[in-house]
Amino acid sequence: MIIAPDPGTTPTAEAQAHPADSAAAASFAALVGKLDYLGAADIESVRQAYRFADQAHLGQLRKNGDPYITHPIAVAAQCAEWKLDAQALMAALMHDAIEDCGVTKEDLVERFGAPVAELVDGLTKLDKLEFDTREQNQAESFRKMLLAMAKDVRVILVKLADRTHNMRTMGDMPRNKWQRISSETLEIYAPIAHRLGLNFTYRELQDLAFRFLHPWRYEVLSKALNKSRTRRKDLITRVQHEAEAAFARHGMQVRILGREKTLYSVYRKMDNKHLSFSQVTDIYGFRIIVPELSDCYTGLGILHQLYKPVPGKFRDYVAIPKVNGYQSLHTTLIGPFGTNIEFQLRTHAMDVVAESGVAAHWLYKASEPNSDTSQRLGTQWLQSLLDIQQETHDASEFWDHVKIDLFPDAVYVFTPKSKILALPRGATVMDFAYAIHSGVGNRAISARINGEQRPLRTELNNGDVVEIVTSETGEPNPAWLSFVKTGRARSKIRHHLKTMAQEKSHELGERMLTQALRSEGIATLPAEVGAYKATWEKLLRFTGSKTRSELLADIGMGRRIASMVGKKLAVLLSETGLKPDALLISTERYASGRDESLAQGVVTLDGSEGLSVQYAPCCKPIPGDRIVGYLGRGEGLIVHADDCPTGKRLLLRDSERFLEVEWADEPVRPFETVVVVTVTNGKGVLARVASAIASAEADITHVDMGEEPAQTATDIRFTVAVRDRQHLAEVLRSLKRTASVLKAQRFKPAKN
pLDDT value at position 400? Predict the structure, then answer.
C-alpha cells in the first residue's frame, strides 16, 4: 500500500534528495491517519509539534541509520492507539527535544503552552534516570518517576510507549546493553504497565525483554510453540466452531477471539513449576466478547453445557474487579481430547479496559465524550503514591513501600458494611485497617474475622469479613512492620513512630537541658521569645541545629550532650545579664553526693517514655535495680543496670554521655527480665513451670529451650514481665516450690 504524503506539507527539494527524510514524512502521514478522533485544531497542534521536533532533531540518526524523528513518531503512534489527547501526542513527539537538542522548557512554554511543556519536562527527567546505578540512586530515580506518574498519568503512558518502541528496536543496540535494559524493562516498566491495566503493553514488554535477556531460550520456546500451534490447529478450529455454534443456537451475538500465552508466561510457568513444555496444557484460550454484562453469566452457562468445567478454575472478576480495573469471567474447561482450554467472557467496554487499563479513560472520552466509566481506573494506586510520599522522605524507604504494590496478586475482603477492599495476597489485618483509614490503623487493638477474635498479624483470605476494634489509647507498634505487606500500611506506621519518637525525644531533651542548666545555676529554661530570642539564635548557630525543637530532639536522641549545650547556654545567658545562682549550683551538683560525670540532673523513669528511652536488652533492668542512663548516638537514652558489663565498658569509654536516672515510685507498666530455670526432664514439666510463673501473676513473653538434645537436667530460659524486683522474687519462690525444678535464678550477663 502506498501512503499519500501529508496534505499539509509540501516536500522540499532537500527532502526529495534524502529518501530517509521522505520516509519520516510518510511515517507522520501514517500517524495523521490515526488521529481521526481529534478535532481539526488539535490535529494542527500535533502537526506543529511534529515540525518543531523534526527541525530540532535534524541531522540526528538512530543506530540503524534512520532519521531520529522516526522514533518520536512511533511513540506518538502508540499514544494515538490509546486515543491520548493532543497534548500527550505533542509531548510524545517532542519528548527528546530538551534532552538532545538544546531546547529549553521556556521555549516550549512560549510556543506550545505550559501543560505540554510540563509533560515534556517530566519525560525528560525520566529519560535521565539510570536504573543500573547504586541502590540509593536507583531508589531516588524510581521515586521521581512514580511521583511524575502520580501527578499526571500521561507522563508514564508516553514513557511506556517510548520504552516499547525502544524494545522493539533493541536489535540495533550494542549487545552489551541488552542485559541492563531488558532487566530494567522486566523488573520496572512491565509491572507498572500491569499495575495500570495496560495488559497488551505488559505482555509485549515481557516478551521483548525475555527475547533479549535470554535469546537462546526464547528461540527454543518460540520454535516449540510454532510446532505446537501447527499440531493443535485442528483442535483450536474445532473448539472455536463448536463454541460459535453453541452461542448461535441460543441466539446470542458474540465475538470469539483466540488467545495464546506469551512466550515469557510459558517460560515462567515452566521455570516456577519445573515443567517441560509438553506439560504446559493451558497455552491456548479464547476471549468471548458479549453485548451486555448479564450476557457474561448467560454465556458462562452455555460454555459449561458445552464442555465440563475444571473444578476450582472459575474466577469472577466482573462482580469483584481486579485492583487495576480489569473485569472478566474466567473459566477453564476440558475440551476435546482432554485438553484444558481457558475462556474469558467480557463486554466490549470491559475488553477495552482489560487491554488498555488507565489509557481506556482516553479511549472512552474519544468514543463517548460524556462518559466517566474509567475515570477512576488506577487512581487509587496513584493517589496512594502521593500519600506515601508525604510521609516518607527517604528514597530507599519509598521504593521499599511501592515495589510490593507493583505486583497486585489480590485478595478481596469485606468490611462489616459489605464494602469490598482489594489487598495484595498475604495482606494482614493491619493492612486492611490502614486501607480503611490511617486513624483506624493507628488505633487498632484487635480484630474479628468472620465473627471470630483473631490476632492483628492474621493473613486475610478471599471473602473474609473483617471488623477492626479500636481504642483511644491504642497506637502503632514497631513490631507491626515485621508483618504488614502494603506500602501504605508500612509508610503510615513508620510515619507515626517517627513523629511519636520526635515528640518523646523533644520532651526528654527539654527535661535534660533544663536539668543541665540547673547544674550551671540557672533555674529554668528561657523561652525563645522576647529578650532571649537572640540568645537562642546564637545557641542554634553554635550547635548547627535549625530550630529549638530540633535541638531539644537531638539532645533527647543523644546526638547532642545536654551538659555541653547547657554550659554554652549558661555562658550566652550571662552575656544578657542573667547570673548563675551559686546555691542552686551547690544543691544540684553536690547535695546528693553524685559523681560529677553524671551531673546532668536525674531523669525519672516510669515506663511511659516511648521510643526515646530503651531498656538495654543485655541486662534487662527492672524497677528496684540500680540503673544508669547512656545517651547513645542517635538512639536516645539507653538504660543499663549499674552492674551490667556492657554499661561499665561504655562508662569507661564515654563517661560524658552518661546521666543519672532513677525509677519512679509507681512505674506504669511491667518490665521484661530473663529467668533461667533448671529442671529434671519429664512429662509435663514445661506446663508445670509455666503454671508456676502464671500463679505468681507474671506474663511469659518468650521461652527458649536451646537447640541441644534434652539431658537429664535442662536449662529453660523464660522472658517474663514483672512489676519490680519484689515481684520477681515472688516468681522465683513460686518456681523453686515446683516439682522437677532444681534451680531458678535471674539471668545476668557474663562479665568480660
Answer: 53
Q: How many residues does the chain have?
A: 752
**Rounded-to-integer distance, Cα 635 and Cα 556, Å:** 9
Q: Per-residue pLDDT tens for 257-311?
A: 877 777 888 888 888 777 777 777 667 788 899 999 999 999 999 999 999 998 8
Is 480 inside any structural domain? no
Would you list the DSSP string of 367-435?
H-TT--TTTTTTHHHHHHHHHHHHH---HHHHHHHHHHHTS--EEEEE-TT--EEEEETT-BHHHHHHH
CATH number at residue 690: 3.30.70.260
Task: Tell me if 405 sits within 8 A of 487, measured CB to CB.
Answer: yes
More confident residue, 615 or 360: 615
Task: Note whether 54 and 96 are within 8 A (CB).
Answer: no
Q: Model confidence at 372, in pLDDT bands (50, 70, 90)?
A: very low
Domain presence at residue 442: yes
CA distances from 362 to 89, 359, 377 (A): 12, 6, 11
Domain residue limits at 185:
13-216
Contact predicate 104/87, CB 8 Å: no
Q: What are phi and psi of 62, to 5 degrees?
A: -85, 175
What's residue 123's pLDDT?
A: 75
**Domain stop point among 612, 636, 663:** 663
704 counts as catalytic = no
Measure the CA–CA gap between 21 and 67, rounded to whole angstroms.
7
Q: Are 359 and 412 in contact (CB under 8 A)?
A: no
Give domain status of residue 225, yes or no. Answer: no
Q: pLDDT, tens digit, for every residue of 632-650?
A: 665 667 899 988 999 888 8
Residues 541 and 521 in one domain: yes
Q: How many domains does the chain have?
A: 5
Report pTM.
Answer: 0.51
Residues 6+ apart with CB under 8 A from 562: 509, 512, 513, 515, 516, 555, 600, 631, 659
Which residue is catalytic, options 66, 81, 85, 100? Answer: 100
Straight-line distance from the first to the last Cα atom of the chain, in angstroms, rounded to the nearest whole number: 88
Q: What angle do CA 247, 253, 257 make, to 5 degrees?
A: 80
Whose grid coordinates read 553554635?
542
Give the other-Cβ count within 10 Å of 630's Cβ.
Answer: 24
Q: Residues 380-423: pLDDT tens digits?
A: 555 555 555 555 555 555 555 555 455 445 677 888 887 777 78
User: With contact defined as beta carbons under 8 Å apart, do 341 and 286 qualify?
Assistant: yes
SS3 346: strand
* 68 and 211 part of one domain: yes
Supply the pLDDT for residue 730: 93
- 387: annotated active-site residue: no
3-state helix/strand/coil string of 282-345? CCEEEEEEECCHHHHHHHHHHHHHHCEEEEEEEEECCCCCCCCCCCCEEEEEECHHHCEEEEEE
Q: What is the DSSP string of 226-260?
A: HHHHHHTHHHHHHHHHHHHHHHHHTT---EEEEEE
Q: Which amino acid is at 574?
A: S
Question: 641 is written with which cell numbers?
Answer: 543496670
Cα 660 to Cα 618: distance, rounded to the nearest angstrom: 19
Q: Contact 573/520 with Cβ under 8 angstroms?
A: no
CA–CA separation, 154 and 596 (whole Å):
65
- Give the residue carrying C-alpha cell 525509677: 663
Identify the active-site residue in 85, 99, 244, 459: 99
Given the DSSP bridges, would you call strands 741-746 and 420-424 parallel, antiparallel or unpaired?
Answer: unpaired
Under a CB-based contact definition with an 8 Å cutoff, are residues 628 and 657 in contact? no
